């Protein structure tokens, strides 16, 4: 039995477990950097961690305040620029990236731009940033959802998952074959994408969470893996690392913007009724 932990901590640890040794990984500020630091400390010492701004092979010291926070590093191999970081992704040198979700549909397409009508929005979101580029060209993309929502149809199509499903992404000719979202990790469970239909299905539930709890959040008939598993609990070492490195993430303070966004969405929906 591990010590008590939050589902937010379990989400971070599940993300870290998706980082493999010797991979090249693009990390955003917040949860992804905490997960990258955990992976490098625990099971992937030779992983190359990269900031979107072009700081390459950095050694995390504390959580960064922005995408070019060199003061958050013990050191790094070299620094280039944003253009070069994106170009590395286009040329196939980025193995995995991590993206947060505001809205997601069953085929892993993302909205991080606006809730409601684009010209008369209920809520304006941060926009694409590098998300559309990274999910388009990284070899695989791990998605995280903490304050967003599952939807049948996106209010705005920001970043491409598997488009209309099936082979639509490969058939478009716009993306490297085999690229795209590999999984979605939430505070309730882990979802993957069917290799043929590319439709999202539930693969793992977190301890203490039921399938019904998860189905309530999903507006379509969510498919469940016949080999549904429970997410392995974190080790004490993993929990301790998060609480030392990013105590704010450990208690969920990194959720502030996402939860505020979720609250704003719900209030806007209530006004529509």
Describe the secondary-structure layout:
Elements: H1 7-16, E1 24-27, H2 31-42, E2 48-51, E3 55-60, E4 73-79, H3 82-90, E5 96-100, E6 103-104, E7 110-111, E8 114-116, E9 121-124, H4 131-137, E10 140-145, E11 149-150, H5 168-172, E12 181-186, E13 189-193, E14 200-205, H6 211-215, E15 223-230, H7 236-245, H8 247-250, H9 256-272
Parallel strand pairs: 1-2, 1-5, 5-10, 6-11, 10-12, 14-15
Antiparallel strand pairs: 3-4, 6-7, 8-9, 12-13, 13-14
Gap between N and C termini, in Å? 46 Å
- The first-level CATH class name: Alpha Beta
What is the SS-derived class? alpha/beta
**Biggest beta-sheet profile:** 8 strands, mixed
Overall radius of gyration = 18 Å
CATH topology: Glutaconate Coenzyme A-transferase
Question: What is the molecular shape?
Answer: globular
Which architecture name does CATH use? Answer: 3-Layer(aba) Sandwich
Structural summary, described in words:
The chain has 9 helices and 15 strands. It is an alpha/beta fold. It has one domain (about 5-270): Glutaconate Coenzyme A-transferase (3-Layer(aba) Sandwich), CATH 3.40.1080. The strands form 4 sheets. The protein has an 8-stranded mixed beta sheet with strand order 2-1-5-10-12-13-14-15, sandwiched between helices. A 3-stranded mixed beta sheet has the order 7-6-11, with no helix packed on it. The protein has a two-stranded antiparallel ribbon with strand order 3-4. The longest helix is centred in the C-terminal third of the chain and has 17 residues, at about 255-270.
